[in-house]
Amino acid sequence: MAEFRQAFIEKLFARHRDALQVFFYRRIRTKPDAADLAQEVYLRMLRVTDIDAIRNPEGYLYTVAANLLKENAVADQRQAGGVDVETIDALDAFGGSPSVEGSLDASRRIERLREVLGQLPPKCRAAVLLQYRYELSYQQIADRLEVSPHMVKKYLAQALSHCRRRMARLE
């Protein structure tokens, strides 16, 4: 019975994997996170013990996906809520400087940070660059990006949350 359940879920997921990734990507705008969330849907579906109780497997699959999006949004808000973008130091925001023992690992961390920053939406990435490299104010960044200063703060909080989450996977 367990083999039938697993085969059924694998077949269902194989049919909907790409659509699930598009579903997530349209809502969160980062392809690596979209793929991770789609994989999490698969894992959660494998935990379902009574597959016969599911009347509409596709509907259930997308219900799990929607709930996962909500959980992800709450986690991002929690992380971003604890970040005071105005007072945070750039080194603290992106993991600090490596210790002497970790200096050999520094180039790997920098490369990973470049990769993680590259995953950000363009305006988030631009806001981070303008804030931390060029030390522009929120108003100056807002003028360049043609958004409000409040939106700049949101972009920075989103970027910091994303970077912390993705950099933590490195360790």
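Second entry:
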Amino acid sequence: MSEFDTRAFRNALGSYPTGVTVITARAQDGSTAGLTINSFASVSLDPPLVLWSLSLHSPSLPAFQNCSHYAINVLAQDQQVLSQRFAATQADKFAGLDFTVGAGGALLLPGCCAWFECRNETHHAGGDHLIFVGQVEGFAISNRPPLVFQGGQYRQLGPLLNGQR
């Protein structure tokens, strides 16, 4: 049996286009945590549940494991700089940003195309990641076009097919 090629596997996964989100929370000590992820998905409408995952090696893992709430900020297509800001390692990713405080102290970023305020419901082991399942307590939508990531690059959605969404 040949060795599993994790780089090729990652490249194959990258062929699937995803939206880009910034997950934010206020840690138990009052500090803020935020990071860019694209592993966001819906789970259930009743009750309203969503999921996302985080590497077990992330320095932000304890903050997200122990917070009461987090926000999922779905980035709009003109927010690539915000995506890169929260993907980078820097001391205070929130410095100079306008934001609104949501449920449990989670931070809602301006200009997004959607927001989900979630109670930190459950966690599940998932290989080298921890899967977070959140119960949505509030949400909003702005009808702005989303930021999309595919093949290692940011993308924009094309025109509608047949004039329909």
